[in-house]
Amino acid sequence: MEKAYIGVFGMGVMGQSLALNIANHGYAVAVYNKDRENTEAFLKKAAGRENVTPCWTLEEFAASLEAPRKILLMVTAGKVVDLVIQSLLPLLDRGDIVIDAGNSYYADTRRRERELRERGIRFFGMGVSGGERGALEGPSMMPGGDPEAYGYLKELFEDMAAKTPDGTPCCAYIGPDGAGHYVKMVHNGIEYADIQLICECYQLMRFAAGMEVEEIGAVFEEWNRGRLQSYLVEITAKILGVRDPETGRPMVDVILDAAGQKGTGKWTSMEGLDIGVPIPTIAESVFARYLSALKEERVAAAKVFPWQSRAALPDRETLVSQLEESLYAAKVCCYAQGFALLRAASEQYGWGLRYGEIALLWREGCIIRARFLEDIAAAFRAQSDLPNLMLADAFAPALRQAQAAWRSIAALSALSGTAAPALLSTLNYFDSYRTAVCPASLLQAQRDFFGAHTYRRSDREGVFHTHWESY
Ligand code: 6PG
After folding, report:
1. Which of 70, 113, 191, 271 is catalytic?
2. What's the gap in Å between 415 CA and the centre of ligand 1?
3. Cβ contacts of 407 within 8 Å, gap of 6 or more
4. Is 312 exposed, middle or buried (0-12, 13-18, 19+ CB in 10 A)?
5. Pocket perturbation via mutation, ligand 1, pick of 171, 367, 368, 369 by most ligand atoms within 8 A of CB
6. Nearest C-alpha to atom 1 of ligand 1 is from which residue?
7. Pocket, ligand 1, Cβ cutoff 6 A
8. Is 191 a catalytic residue?
9. Which residues, 6 or more positions from 28, have their beta carbon under 8 angstroms from its beta carbon?
10. pLDDT digits (tens, 9 = 90+) for 226-259
């Protein structure tokens, strides 16, 4: 029997969609799942495709693959990945390629790559974004691993991936070891921030300005036709137009306001703290999810601290336009934070990340796909060592222009008592970044006062200490 080009291990929703995507592009694919029910369910979906080989044992799976074997794992991130690798190892030959396409933590990927390299197995960590539909119709793919082994995967992955309007695949080799999973982690961190910013705009329209849900949906629909065009804005407009069939109320009013999360935003935030890169909007978005989950406490606190809005509302058109400017500015700043983190990581791990290319990978297929990623790509093309995206010619004028509106929205949030932690934190990031003289001189003096931690002077080189008590 003809051997399969690639095997997919794990027939959950994402594994099934990726395997179908592969088969739909004409590649012979073998599939395996621990429990046979999932494989059987998949076979129904793949009915009529002769290039799909179901395997019922691991031995059969390994034997069904051409050399070098290429095995794509789509299993739950964490311990399961290690267990699956252990179960496969005795059946693999030197030179075989294993690709972990789940949302694995990049440090785990670095470890697995190292351990497997020692055994002659070439390991890839690949970020895949776009959900179930993306996986089937064309996701954004971020593979990281051995550059030579990528030659076996390039064509297949580029076939599978989403394409930009000019036909460029949203898939490119990211870098060695954990680079692909790192980039996906940062993608998710930006996703958290993007979602939170959109939610805060909704909240301000709904509760500070008293707009109806459908009316707000129409605003997002309108924004989606302009520079904010993005998948997340598009689905927000759609969601706000849906009513609960049982109660007739807007769906957004019947869904419990307590956010879930699987941890990738937290990892990104931890990474910012670890590597020393300020990414406050991303961290704030994770905290906002935690705060949302304190539902009972919030309900109780609402009674203890009632607040009557003291905000003078502008007319509807002005408000919507100020929000649009604020959302755009905040989005630019949160992408700036994500790319600043990538830059630091690239230097730390020697990955040689190509930021413009990464922006284009996210142009289609993924959850944060958006028109303005093209501008980000262009900004990095113009200056590859751009210290911060906010400074790019493509964004600096818009940020300058948005400042007034953004500050009005911050005031509206504070005076109406409508929490907008990401919008405000991002404004503070922007203000801190554009502040030439900040109060860290006083901070340094305090540290030197209580702990003789020393300080540097702005007018000459050296390290200094003052005997503060003697003054
Ligand atoms: C993607 C998404 C996906 C992630 C979900 C949910 O790029 O397709 O990032 O990988 O699992 O968005 O993430 P949370 O449950 O943490 O919100």
Report:
1. 191
2. 34
3. 427
4. exposed
5. 367
6. 129
7. 103, 129-131, 188, 191, 260-262, 264-265, 366-367
8. yes
9. 2, 3, 4, 5, 6, 51, 52, 53
10. 999 999 999 999 999 999 999 999 999 999 999 9
